[in-house]
Amino acid sequence: MTTSTTPHQRSDTAKAAASGLTIFASVMLFVSGGMDICRGLMGVLEDEVFLVTRGYVFEFDLTTWGWIHLAFGVIAVGVGVGLFVAATWARIMGVIIAAVLMIANFLSLPYYPLWSLILIAIDGFVIWALCVVDPEALYEPS
């Protein structure tokens, strides 16, 4: 015995999945941004928290890395809030800021390896969640 679904039921299911993934991406971007803010503050206020490496190609002063991560973290939190309220600009900006955060965390990998790897993974999940959502399912009227 089979059951048939109406287009309206499929639309509700697609909308629920789309909004669930967008909320997931929003929360993960908010967490990633918050962790980058913490990392930035550690770099700005207390340089001795990080590993010191010699001869690293992308070697900046650790305070500079702190300011970079602090700025990106604040932007990521703002975009995460935009995603949570379903702002249309936030989907594209979410993918962009998550990619930029992945690059920044990769480049600062020698200074704080475990933290960098965790943030790279979180940002990868954010990009995935934002890219698999069908925007028409998210923004179509019920």
Automatic annotation (TrEMBL):
UniProt entry tagged with the keyword Transmembrane: yes
Superkingdom per UniProt: Bacteria
Domain named DUF7144: residues: 22-133
Pfam families: DUF7144 (PF23636)
The protein, known as: DUF7144 domain-containing protein
Positions of transmembrane segments: 21-45, 65-85, 92-108, 114-133
Coiled-coil annotated residue ranges, if any: none
Keyword terms of this UniProt record: Membrane, Transmembrane, Transmembrane helix
